[in-house]
Design a protein that fits this description.
mainly alpha
Length: about 1200
């Protein structure tokens, strides 16, 4: 603290440090006061920093409460200002929003009113059109009525009576005839024409008027006036129409020329108008003309479509009885809008809406006045459309010919469209391959297009007139694959799923080099190029046609190209001077070339800069520089062509860059590239003529140069293909190297181009066949293979895209397809994990999903995992019984489907499902009766006994009952199987023959009346040589023998084994593997059978010393068949007895038993009934004994412990 005054004093004197105001946060002490003074002194010494100290020091000097009050006021004031500003801003924003909404509302209201006005205008146009149609039809009707025979006679009499009052002077009559002949009369209105005729007496000029009418060059628009003239003349002069009609027919049937065709159409319309107005009453000639033009006598092969179209357009509904489409559309519009207005007014709404009405509330309906007029017109048009100028029969004939012509023309239009598409595609391919089309091809294409247009017009007109639908034109399917770039060369493109689409090139850089060509026409002023705007536009159109819009045109960023600092006028003068031949000085020593002349600059450009262009940017810069400074000179362009042609034979690296320069020039100056391509092609063919093996490098350079120009699309692909064909014609020596060079340079481009792939593939096929036919050395063979596979690489196997599964499904696949193994630990783990699944979520469908992958684990997983799958299903059965039910149903359905549609591909799958079914029986998911029922289905399905066979067997049995029992026939099956399968017996390879009694032919064994199936019945799904069902039966038996062979099932199982042996005897032979599988199954079944037999029987066999017997075996089909039939009869008898018992019980419960006992007529039935009851009681006792035996058997099944082992030892002793 001792040096505090000194510090304050120093700040007071200097002022530089006092401005920092260090006393801001301290107490108001004496030292602080001194420092405060120092701060004020600092303020006078340094305003910039002392001022800050002054302001800060004020907070430490005076009263602190006053300062806090002032700052609080300022803060409140600022907050108030901010609040007011925010309110003003919000109000301004709200005002703008309201203005925008009002503006939008006003625009929407105007749009709605405009739409309403357009609707009213459309309705008004429809009313006017229908009104015009009505007036025309009524006028024609009136004319027909006036020109009827009686009325026409009276009109002519009136004219004869008033003829003397008319003007008949030569001057006026001759003027009228000249007016008709010159065509000036057709500018008059029909009413004025009729007034002139009515004021003149033309009795002596009738034939002249008719001739003048034919000499006049009539047009379609003149027909109303012409018809008015003919009406007026015909109503007054009887000789007019006879003088006119023959001349009209002579023109119609005359020679076909362009002028005659035009007049023929007009005269056909005129004749049709005559027919409609009653001037012409003879319709047969018109019908004959229409029939000839439509080809009615030749299957409607239309000969003159224009005649048919002209007639149909004028005839309308009065002759053809068909309403045109425009009239129908107008009628529908008027009806619809009238109904809309009536509906709107019926709802009590008003058409008068204020200006501030919302747009959606403005009604979009017509005015009541328009609606009234529309209803009036609709009422008249119905009667108008019923008016006919000819009878119904004649109208039907006209309509038939017109529709026949329409159908024929429609078919021809569709065929022409298809042919035109193919022709355009073929011409486009030829143009791309050859560069241009011949004049004949161009003319043929133009004629085809014109023919299609004419057919389209005719078909559309007839469709409109006859109200027939237009046919649909099918677009060519190949056009869907065409590029979207328009005309030009269409390049190969990859599929849409490919990430990188580089067309016929392999990478983006290569594609950019060959396709991104700078468009100097848009960057260089036309004056520097020596062209005008029309020439620039013409070149752009040609480039678009040749190269297409799909090639990406690169435009430089600069607004203009680099120009030398010479004025344009001076540059043009120098270029003009350059074109003048330079004088040759005899003394070369005195000649010193001026370095500033264009000639010297061009020489430097071509001789020094051009060979050094080895980068894309240098090439584009050089091309631009040439176009700016030398492009307008024809001599300079010739020198550039020569420089581009004379590439050193060792500088093959320059060929792509020289070709790029040629591509740039071709878009501006085509005369640069055309001679270059011609010279190169001539050089190639000229070098191919020499057989000396000395110019290989030059030939390779020429071939590669042509290939590079082909890739730039400067020359047509046909040039390279012709060169390749020239090499293949003499495929030996250096021609092999040149052909491979062509393929390496542009082969892949041509192969991946749409229009050249077929031709190139054909040439490559020829090349490969030639290489195989000729004994070429290893170098040539390797060269050919390298070029071939460079163009067409060997196809790689497509990669399978791994399917992405949802997390739950993916984890389930892991559990059942990977994790699950036939181990107790694995089964327990998988079971616990499955129980943790979201079973309460219905969207997951856990039950169906687990069942699906359980079947998949059995089908596509490991065969040993099938018991584990069954164990897992049994483990989750207590908590989720849905899985077990689904699994059993799916397994049975799959097995049934496999039996109904047996294919070799599904055999292993069916065996897998049979194994799964057996394993589910092992884990107590499937009961024994289901297994036995499925076993029966395996051997019986498809072998149902037909009704015809049953009838024949019934007759045979009735005949056999009459014979003695000793003369029983011996079975001889059609396939000759009569052997028994004995344990450990090897069957011979030969087919065993059936035993036949000597002297007698064996008779067939009839089917039993109780049998439903018989394996002797042929079935296409189980032929005799098929052993697939035997495999399935053995698989199911092996998997389920642990639980199915019990005392309760022995009887049913014995019946199946008997039927199975009968089924086996019908098979002609068994393969070795099936035979061994069958013997192993029988061994296993036999051992299980012995264990499941009753204890009393086993003890009896052991005490008597007899070997314990297993399941019954049969030595022949006859024995097995008899045993099977006996069991079927036994089962049928038991079923009949049970049914009788149930019927008796039902009859007792429904009827009055006491009344039945006292009825004498029912005494015998009562006795029978009593006996039946006794039998049923005995059956009940038998059933009770069977149930007890079954329960004992079930208990014994679980007692396979020490007692069974002792019994087995006793039986063995």
């Amino acid at each position: 603290m001792a040096d505090a005054p000194g510090r304050g004093k120093g700040r007071k004197g200097g002022g530089a440090g006092g401005g920092r105001g260090r006393g801001k946060g301290r107490a108001p002490s004496k030292q602080d006061g001194e420092r405060g003074k120092g701060g004020r002194g600092g303020e006078s010494g340094n305003k910039g920093r002392g001022g800050r100290g002054k302001n800060r020091r004020r907070g430490g000097r005076g009263s602190g409460e006053k300062t806090e009050t002032i700052s609080e006021e300022e803060r409140l004031k600022r907050e108030e200002e901010k609040r007011i500003a925010a309110e003003l801003a919000a109000a301004e924003a709200e005002r703008k929003r309201l203005e925008e909404e009002q503006k939008k509302l006003h625009l929407a209201r105007d749009a709605k009113r405009k739409e309403q006005k357009e609707l009213c205008d459309e309705v008004q146009e429809a009313i006017d059109s229908l009104t015009m149609t009505i007036s025309v039809v009524e006028s024609r009707k009136r004319h027909r009525k006036e020109l009827a025979a009686e009325n026409l006679l009276s009109l002519r009499k009136e004219f004869e009576a008033s003829k003397k009052k008319l003007k008949s002077d030569l001057r006026k009559c001759t003027a009228f005839v000249k007016k008709v002949k010159s065509g000036t009369a057709w500018t008059m209105k029909p009413a004025d024409m009729e007034r002139d005729i009515a004021s003149l007496n033309l009795s002596r000029y009738v034939e002249e008027v008719a001739a003048a009418l034919l000499e006049a060059k009539l047009k379609v628009v003149d027909l109303p006036t012409v018809v008015s003239l003919c009406l007026a003349m015909h109503s007054r002069y009887a000789d007019f129409i006879p003088s006119l009609i023959p001349s009209l027919w002579s023109v119609i049937h005359g020679k076909s020329t362009d002028e005659a065709s035009k007049m023929r159409r007009i005269y056909v319309r005129l004749l049709t108008e005559f027919l409609l107005n009653g001037i012409l009453t003879e319709w047969k000639q018109v019908l004959k003309l229409l029939a000839d033009a439509s080809g009615a006598n030749n299957g409607y092969a239309v000969s003159d479509a224009m005649v048919v179209v002209s007639f149909a357009k004028v005839a309308g509904s009065e002759i053809l009885s068909a309403t045109p489409q425009n009239i129908l559309q107008d009628i529908c519009l008027l009806e619809e809008q009238s109904q809309e207005l009536d509906k709107f007014l019926s709802e009590g709404k008003s058409l008068d809406v204020p200006d501030d009405t919302m747009p959606e509330d403005i009604p979009l309906v017509i005015t009541p006045l328009l609606s009234t007029r529309a209803k009036e017109v609709l009422g008249k048009i119905e009667e108008t459309l019923k008016e006919r100028a000819v009878t119904a029969q004649i109208s039907e004939l006209f309509q038939q010919h017109c529709k026949g012509a329409f159908d024929a023309l429609a078919i021809s239009w569709v065929e022409t469209h298809t042919k035109l598409q193919k022709l355009e595609k073929r011409c486009e391919q030829d143009r791309l391959l050859q560069g241009n089309l011949s004049d004949a091809r161009e003319k043929g294409l133009a004629d085809a297009r014109k023919l299609k247009e004419n057919l389209q017009k005719s078909v559309e007109t007839l469709s409109h007139t006859l109200n027939c639908p237009l046919p649909t034109l099918q677009e060519n399917e190949d056009d869907e694959d065409a590029g979207e770039g328009g005309p030009g060369l269409e390049l190969w493109t990859k599929g849409e799923d490919e990430a990188n689409d580089f067309g016929p090139f392999d990478d983006e850089e290569t594609k950019s080099f060959y396709c991104d060509i700078p468009d100097l026409l848009t960057t260089i002023p036309p004056a520097l190029l020596g062209m005008n705007d029309s020439e620039i536009q013409r070149l752009q159109e040609e480039n678009l046609r040749k190269y297409g819009a799909e090639s990406e045109i690169m435009v430089d960023d600069g607004s203009a190209a680099e120009v030398d600092p010479i004025a344009e006028s001076e540059l043009e003068e120098e270029l003009e001077e350059e074109e003048v031949d330079e004088p040759k000085d005899e003394t070369k020593e005195n000649y010193e070339e001026n370095k500033d002349t264009p000639h010297f600059r061009l020489q430097v450009l071509l001789e020094q800069e051009l060979p050094e262009c080895n980068r894309r940017e240098q090439v584009d810069e050089l091309a631009e520089k040439f176009c700016v400074n030398h492009g307008s000179s024809k001599t300079s362009r010739k020198r550039l062509t020569k420089a581009l042609f004379q590439v050193p034979r060792t500088r093959l690296d320059l060929l792509p860059h020289y070709s790029r320069i040629a591509a740039v020039m071709d878009r501006i100056y085509p005369d640069v590239v055309t001679p270059l391509a011609t010279d190169l092609e001539q050089q190639f063919h000229g070098q191919a003529k020499f057989k000396k093996q000395q110019n290989l490098e030059s030939r390779l350079k020429t071939a590669r140069y042509l290939g590079e120009l082909t890739k730039f699309r400067v020359i047509p692909p046909i040039v390279s293909l012709r060169c390749l064909r020239r090499c293949l014609d003499d495929f030996s020596g250096f021609n092999i190297d040149v052909a491979c060079c062509i393929l390496e340079s542009c082969g892949r481009f041509l192969y991946r181009t749409k229009h050249t792939v077929a031709k190139l593939a054909s040439l490559m096929d020829v090349m490969m066949r030639l290489s195989k036919a000729k004994n070429l050395d290893d170098r040539y063979q390797a060269l050919i293979n390298s070029a071939f596979y460079m163009v067409k690489p060997p196809s790689a196997a497509p990669r399978k895209i791994a399917k992405v599964y949802p997390p739950l499904e993916a984890y389930l696949r892991y559990l059942l397809l990977v994790r699950l193994e036939p181990l107790e630990s694995s089964i327990s783990f998988v079971t616990k994990q499955l129980l943790k699944f979201p079973w309460n979520d219905p969207s997951k469908a856990c039950g169906a999903l687990i069942c699906k992958y359980m079947l998949k684990a059995c089908r596509k997983g490991r065969y040993k995992a099938i018991p584990a799958v069954a164990a897992v299903a049994a483990g989750i059965r207590r908590n989720k019984p849905e899985v077990a039910s689904r699994l059993i149903d799916a397994c049975l359905e799959e097995i049934q489907w496999a039996m109904e549609h047996p294919t070799f591909r599904d055999q292993q799958r069916t065996i897998t499902y049979a194994r799964l079914l057996g394993e589910m029986n092992t884990v107590s998911l499937v009961t024994g009766p289901i297994i036995i029922q499925q076993l029966y289905k395996f051997i019986n399905f498809g072998h149902e006994i037909p009704h015809a066979l049953r009838e024949v067997s019934t007759k045979q049995i009735s005949n056999e009952n009459e014979q003695k029992e000793d003369n029983l026939p011996v079975y001889n099956s059609a396939i000759g199987v009569s052997h028994a399968i004995i344990e450990d017996e090897e069957m011979d390879d030969e087919v065993l023959e059936s035993r036949v009694e000597e002297g007698e032919m064996p008779k067939p064994v009839a089917v039993s009346c109780h049998s439903v199936y018989d394996p002797r019945v042929s079935s296409p799904i189980d032929p005799p040589d098929s052993v697939f069902r035997v495999k399935v039966v053995c698989t199911l038996l092996e998997a389920s023998l642990k639980n199915i062979v019990t005392r309760s099932n022995l009887s049913s199982l014995e019946g199946f084994v008997t039927s199975f042996q009968r089924y086996l005897f019908t098979k002609p032979s068994l393969p070795a593997e099936v035979e061994f599988l069958l013997l192993d199954t029988f061994d296993l079944l036999d051992s299980k059978w012995k264990r499941a037999s009753p204890k009393e029987r086993r003890k009896t066999d052991a005490s008597s010393g007899v070997k314990q017997q297993g399941f019954p075996r049969f030595e022949s089909w006859f024995d097995a068949h008899n045993a099977t039939v006996a069991r079927e009869e036994e089962l049928a008898l038991a079923e009949k007895r049970n049914r009788a018992r149930l019927e008796a019980i039902a009859e007792v419960s429904e009827g009055n038993f006491d009344d039945i006992l006292h009825d004498d007529d029912m005494a015998i039935e009562d006795e029978d009934y009593g006996s039946d009851v006794d039998d049923s009681d005995s059956d009940d006792e038998t059933d009770d004994e069977d149930d007890a035996a079954i329960s004992n058997a079930d208990e014994d099944d679980y007692e396979i412990g020490e007692d069974e082992m002792e019994d087995e030892e006793d039986s063995e002793d």
